[in-house]
Amino acid sequence: QVQLVESGGGLVQAGGSLRLSCAASGRTFSIYAIGWFRQAPGKEREFVAAVSWSGHITDYADSVKGRFTISRDNAKNTVYLQMNSLKPEDTAVFYCAADIRTGVRTVLRTTGGLYDYWGQGTQVTVSS
Questions:
Q1: Closest CA to 28 of 77, 96, 97
Q2: How far is CA 46 from CA 60, 63, 73, in A?
Q3: How far apart are CA 5 and CA 51, in angstroms?
């Protein structure tokens, strides 16, 4: 079992920044990657970014490239999502999810249904 707890959401004006945190506990040695996803009202959940647990591999949705940065703190078992130049269309509930290692893996998954554990979510609201 892996437990994930997100934090750092809030209300920010357009152009502002927020940093989300995803703290992992439990069988963290079994994690291959952590992904961030978001779901806006009336829309489907979408991939935002992912990082391998080693921190060596990252991937981003085109909509956030150049604005968001995903990173990992090994000592704290925490993954961060630094969000800059926020736009009103970034408003959503943001979730982090753990992809559990199965065999040799070299590719980060962008499909939420393939992730195994999820946090409770944190609300990000960007005002215009």
A1: 77
A2: 11, 11, 24
A3: 16
Residue range 51-75, pLDDT digits in tens: 999 889 999 999 999 999 999 998 9
For 80-120, the pLDDT digits (tens) are 999 999 999 999 999 999 999 887 777 899 999 999 999 99
**Residue 117, token pair as written in the block:** 């554990």
| Contact assessment for residue 98 and residue 79, using Cβ atoms and an 8 Å cutoff | no
Q: What is the b/e burial string over 57-90, where b = at least 16 CB atoms within 10 angstroms of the residue's CB?
A: eebbbeebeeebbbebeeeebbbbbebeebeeeb
